[in-house]
Amino acid sequence: MAENEATEYEIRVKGRLASRWAEWFDGMTLTSDEDGTSVISGMVADQSALHGLLRKLSDLGVPLVSVSRSSDVDAPTSTTPIHPMRRSTT
Predict the structure, then answer these.
(1) CATH entry, 7-81, from 3.10.450, 3.30.70, 3.40.50, 1.10.10
(2) What is the rounded end-to-end Cα distance, in angstroms, of the chain?
(3) Most buried pick, 18, 61, 64, 76, via CB within 10 A?
């Protein structure tokens, strides 16, 4: 992915997020799965924007399950498990 190229991502988190949070996540789509997780999906402008979304989730204390890039048709979609983010005490 080029540094400034928008890419579609799916971010899976533990718990159910209400659809009203979509605006807070830059208009991304929120869906709840039967397994008790939620998926935040949509176009992300660049890596900086992706990190911003992940920071928002961290600020909410929402545990991440995975982050998947979903717009690369030629490349296999990869799912990377995310370890819980540690909050800085400074």
Answers:
(1) 3.30.70
(2) 33
(3) 64
Q: What is the pLDDT of residues 43-87, one digit of tens each?
A: 999 999 999 999 999 999 999 999 999 855 344 444 444 444 444
Q: How far apart are CA 89 and CA 82, in angstroms?
A: 21
| Residue spans of alpha helices (H) in 10-78 | 47-60
Q: What is the pTM of this model?
A: 0.72
Q: Nearest 5°: CA angle at 88, between 21 and 68?
A: 45
Cα–Cα distance, 11 to 50 (Å, whole number): 10
